[in-house]
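Item description
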Amino acid sequence: MKPFQLIFAYVRKYKLPLIVTAISMLALVGAQLLIPWVVKLLVAAITSPAATLNTMDYVSRLTVIVLIVFLARAGLQFVRSYVAHVAGWGVVADVRKYVYDHMQRLSLRFYEDKQVGQLMSNVVNDTELFEQFISHAIPDVVVNFVTLFAVTAVLFTLNWQLALLSLIPIPLVVLSLRMYAKYVRPAFRHRQKQLGDLNALLNDNLSGIREIKAFTREEDESRRVERGIDLYRTSLLKALRLMAIFQPFVEFTSSIGTLIVIFFGGRLALQGTLPVADLVAFFLYLETFYTPVRNLSNAWEAVQSSLAGADRLSDLLAEPQEPQNLRGAEPVKGRVRGGIAFESVNFEYVKDVPVLENITLDIPARSVLALVGPTGVGKSTLVSLIPRFYDGTSGRICLDGRDLHEYTLDSLRQQISIVLQDVFLFYGTVRDNLLFGRPDASDAEIEAAAKTANAHQFIMDLPNGYDTLIGERGVKLSGGQKQRLSIARAILKDAPILILDEATSSVDTETELLIQQAIERLMQGRTTIVIAHRLSTVRNADKIVVLEDKSILEMGTHTELIQQNGLYKRLYSVQQELAPMEV
């Protein structure tokens, strides 16, 4: 869906405030047209040869009318401004929800080369520009166009020859609007990109502030941020410079109309063919006529700025979503047994660049499978195919004898728990993070899961126990503590399939023992796939699969693979030799 189709789809939800806004705007136009006409009547009454003291009563009545109009105009301006903002920010909120939901459905491939700050800029900054479009640009354009046509009609009523002459500058204004769209819109688009780049840089640096301090890169990163700020300022000033050229041009062309009326209107008044009252009214209406012309330039700025944000948002909304549910896919019924089979599976991140080739593998339900091999052979990619983070290029994967595509994505992923080497914890309390996999768990279940994961004791040692804030990404916890919380989260989810991606590779020996004990409890009764860095941790696996060069090289138990005298034995022997040195 294109951004403006999206906007107008959500605008329908706010029809009532927009109708109220439209009525108030039309009433404002009427109030603007009434004031010059009252002045015309006043001048005509004062300059009339028949003016008497009774004329004072007439002037008083006109004053009262003008007072009422001014009061009404103030109230209408409030209604027009506030109610338009209700609709504008309502649409922005709805579009932001839609964009975020769309981003959640995007494939993990999309996020592999994207900066979080840029995506945040899409959701926050680019969508915010739509508020200008709805609350400012559209109302201003409507009011100014209605005012323009209404004033034109009044001017022709006063003197059609003078009205025609005053329209001479209009083609120049139209030309300037076209030139504006051609040159200024790209400038605003570039400004939005620079703002996204700056957000991305700030997000990276604030997330990596510990590394910046550790490597004493404060001055270097400060210069990078300064460059980002300067680039944004330069792009902004370029767009504003074009605006600064455009607005005076519109101002000048509208002034030409005033010069024309002074020259020809003065002559008509001296010749007696145009009453002085009409000439005064004509000047007042002429100002009212060119005010919307000038305002259209500001409204056009908001339109172009919104279009710039829409262009960037279009790119995001055009991104294909992650693997979808196939027609006829059904939710998983109950709890799966957990038997998994790979049948001649191939996978490519980039076309014609294979990552996995001809993977055929049977994992019985409730068994333990270990994946080992050199870095970069595709171990993590292989396990990512099971929850369908990616779909294989060819072949198929079955769960309990049924193709994964026959299950709905949500129900499939509810059957799988994943514990990664790089644990991600959300900003919040320990309890919030444990509940992430199962929000309806009771306090007793949370505590039981933590005990099983050997995490309960250190949690109770925290200042507020389970209600302790752990900081962004769990910055207040050690690596081993974060890993045990991740295991407790998986235990609480209680899924029949468990994926462990090098869950103990970055901790000390004592902590590894605690984590290994927790993992052994977690593995009981589950189909478990372990990606192992330390081969000593997978000796008891039911089956060990050795990957090399995109495919399966060896397969068997620990004893069988040692007897084969292949890659597994070489890797295991090297680690055994290094083990005393590590201790």
